Automatic annotation (TrEMBL), chains A, B:
<keyword id="KW-0238">DNA-binding</keyword>
<dbReference type="InterPro" id="IPR036271">
    <property type="entry name" value="Tet_transcr_reg_TetR-rel_C_sf"/>
</dbReference>
<dbReference type="Pfam" id="PF17920">
    <property type="entry name" value="TetR_C_16"/>
</dbReference>
<dbReference type="GO" id="GO:0000976">
    <property type="term" value="F:transcription cis-regulatory region binding"/>
</dbReference>
<dbReference type="GO" id="GO:0003700">
    <property type="term" value="F:DNA-binding transcription factor activity"/>
</dbReference>
<feature type="region of interest" description="Disordered">
    <location>
        <begin position="1"/>
        <end position="32"/>
    </location>
</feature>
<feature type="DNA-binding region" description="H-T-H motif">
    <location>
        <begin position="53"/>
        <end position="72"/>
    </location>
</feature>
<protein>
    <submittedName>
        <fullName>TetR/AcrR family transcriptional regulator</fullName>
    </submittedName>
</protein>
<dbReference type="InterPro" id="IPR041678">
    <property type="entry name" value="TetR_C_16"/>
</dbReference>
<dbReference type="InterPro" id="IPR001647">
    <property type="entry name" value="HTH_TetR"/>
</dbReference>
<dbReference type="Pfam" id="PF00440">
    <property type="entry name" value="TetR_N"/>
</dbReference>
<dbReference type="InterPro" id="IPR009057">
    <property type="entry name" value="Homeodomain-like_sf"/>
</dbReference>
<feature type="domain" description="HTH tetR-type">
    <location>
        <begin position="30"/>
        <end position="90"/>
    </location>
</feature>
<dbReference type="InterPro" id="IPR050109">
    <property type="entry name" value="HTH-type_TetR-like_transc_reg"/>
</dbReference>
Amino acid sequence: MIRSETGDDGAEGGGVTAERRRPGRRPGSADTRGEIVVAARKIFAEKGFDKATIRGIAREAGVDPALVHHYFDTKEGIFVAALHLPVDPSKVIPLVLEGPREEVGERVARFILTMTADPMAREPIVALVRSAMTNERVVAMIREFMTRAILERVAVGLDIPPLRMEAAFAQMFGVVLLRYVLQVEPVASVDIEELVGLLAPTIQRYLGAD
Amino acid sequence: MIRSETGDDGAEGGGVTAERRRPGRRPGSADTRGEIVVAARKIFAEKGFDKATIRGIAREAGVDPALVHHYFDTKEGIFVAALHLPVDPSKVIPLVLEGPREEVGERVARFILTMTADPMAREPIVALVRSAMTNERVVAMIREFMTRAILERVAVGLDIPPLRMEAAFAQMFGVVLLRYVLQVEPVASVDIEELVGLLAPTIQRYLGAD
C-alpha cells in the first residue's frame, strides 16, 4: 500500500488516498475518477450494460477494480456517473415506491415531472435519447440499463407484470418528450401539478395493486 | 395550355398532362412531382409548417401553384408526401373518430399500433423523430404539423381540451418508441391486441366524453 502523491482528486468525498500499486496500474491521481468515467463510457458503448464489468472498466482505465468499486460502488453507479444521469435508480426507486400503494401513481408522476423540470437533470437524459435515436449500440446500452435498473426493479418491487411498468414508463417518457423536446403546447407550459392530476390516475392504473 | 411532352410522370393517377406554361415555369415533366416534393422539403425545413405556403413551394419548384394543388390537394398533403408519412391525418382522423364515443380509446390504440406494425409505415415516422432529436428546425416543423394536423383536429373533433389529446398522444408515442426504437421487452414482442387491452382504457379516459 502506498500513498497517492497527488492526494485528493476533488471529485468525491476526498478519502481516497491509499490504494494498491500493481504492475502497469497507476495510483489514484487528480483525474483517476475522470479516467475511470472515460473508460466506462467506452466499455458500456462497446459491450452494452449487461456485458460490461467493473473488472473490464478497471482494466481499460489501468486501475485496480477495488478503486472503481470505491468511487462508484456498483456497475449502475458507474453508468449513472459516466452518462451524467441525474439520479441513481437504485437509490431513488425505493423512495418513490415507499408509501401508500394507492398513491404510487401520483408519486411517480410528480417525481418524474419534478426531476425533468430541472434542465441540469433533464439534459443528459435528452442527450442519451438523442444518441439512441441514431446509434444501435447506444440503444442496446440504454435498453439493458433501463430494463435492469428501472423496469425490472419497479415491477418486482410492486409485484406487477413488467408490461404494466413499461406502459407507465411510456406514458411519462412520451409526456417528457412532448413537453421538453417537441415543446408542443399546452403540455410544454402547463403547471406540473395540472399534469400530475391528469397523469396520476393513468400511472396508478398500471402500477397500483391488482 | 400545352401538352407536356413527357406525358405521365408515373407517380400519380396519370391524368396530369396539361398545365399552363408561364415565363420561367416548366411544364409537367417526368419528375415534376418529385421536384415539387424536393422543393417542399426545403421550404418546410426553412419556414416550418405554419409559414410554408403552396405558392412558396411552387415558386421554389418553378411550377404553377395550381399544379401543386393538383398533385397534393392541400399543404398537409404536400407535407405527408414530402416526409413520406404513411397516412394523411386529415383523411384518417375522421375515420378513427367515427363510431361510438365509448370505444374511441380502443379505436385509437388499435389504429396506431396496427399502422406502426408495418415497417414501411413506421420508418418515415421514426426517421422524422430521429432528425427532430438533433435539429431545431425539424422540431419546429414537426411541432407545427402535429399541432395543426393532428392534436387540434382531434381535440376539436372530440370537444376535449388539447392537453387531454396530448396525454393520449404521449402514451401512444411512448409505447411506439419503447416497442420499435428502444425495443424493450416484453413490450417489443407482445401481441397488438394485448397492448390494445392495456392501453385502450387510458386513451379512453383522455378522449372519452366528460
